[in-house]
Amino acid sequence: MLPKKIGAFRDSLKRNNMISILCLLLVLVCFVLNSLERREAQRERAEYAYYVAADGEVIPAHYAARRDNIEIEIRHHLAMFVDAWYNLTQYDWEEKAERAGWLGGNSIRDLFIARKKAGYYNRFIQNNITQAARIVDLQVHPEPDGTYSFELVVDIQERMDAYVRMWRLLASGAVRVIERSWPHNPHGLWIEPYLETKIMEVKNNE
How many whole angstroms from its chain centre is CA 140? Predict the structure, then answer.
């Protein structure tokens, strides 16, 4: 009688051990699959960034050492900067100044400080000025050191109630490639220096 009980007990232990081993294998497989899935997700996040186009469309911006569309990215980066730096109202100038600061270096911050000291932004608050800008010409040139120089022409409309003034701004500078940063700098480009070389008022008959 006793040997039968011992045999049954041994069989029960074997079954329990087998079940335990199968459970451990199942957990191990799940862990491996989960690790592979997370690694793939991290790879995809590292490979792609996203930016929001002017029409609100979310567009993937592909990370790559070789950038076939670098000039297109530079043009859009500069368009983002012009929008943040020159399309201003009394309600959004601080937010847009911060946005512009993410797109370039010390020359932009120095311009911002000079603007504040000169009372440039106070005009928007005190006189309810709305300023709209558009790029009318942009030239981009690759340089031997890997940077890209540019010349920029921007038309600026300054509106205060029914009073409208038009300005034409000439600017130049350079752009270099850095690491992308979503959402602040989705193209991974850095404007430095940025120089406002000339600004002139445009009369209605010009």
Answer: 20
